[in-house]
Write a structure and sequence with these properties.
By secondary structure, the chain is mostly helical. It has helices spanning 2-6, 18-36, 44-73, 82-91, 99-115, 120-123, 128-154. The protein has one domain. Helix content is 72%, strand content 0%.
Length: 155
Amino acid sequence: MWKLIATAFYSGYSPVAPGTAGAAVGVLMLWGMSEVWPGQFSGGWPQAHWLLVAILVFFFLGVKASQKLEPEWGHDPSRITVDELVGVWVAMLGVPVNWLNLLLAFGLFRLFDIWKPLGIRKLEKLPGGWGVMMDDVAAGVAAGVGVQVWLMMRG
């Protein structure tokens, strides 16, 4: 069970760009949730409420899974991708779910996750699963700010 969670439904086993695969799983899950519950993902507080619950659940499961697997896999191996799934969801908090917004959040999140500006890299040094998850949450926040700015500029 911990490997299923840590690898974001086995996306972490992707032979090419597992972090990108994990973020893509997050995008697909969010799009799927918006299709099943369309009124809950049109943006604003209803979506933020449900998405925040999902973020918190997967965040704490990710911390636990990372800690459980650290003795076997080491600290923050590339196959742990639940952090990317959570990060892309953070970027979409309060944002209407549509393909354009999802792609923008995905792209900005991956940029900030790889680049790690604004002290994001320092969060990787937190112990155990906390460091694994927190740098991606911070990258998601930075990406979310970018998405919100873009939405404001569009009017």
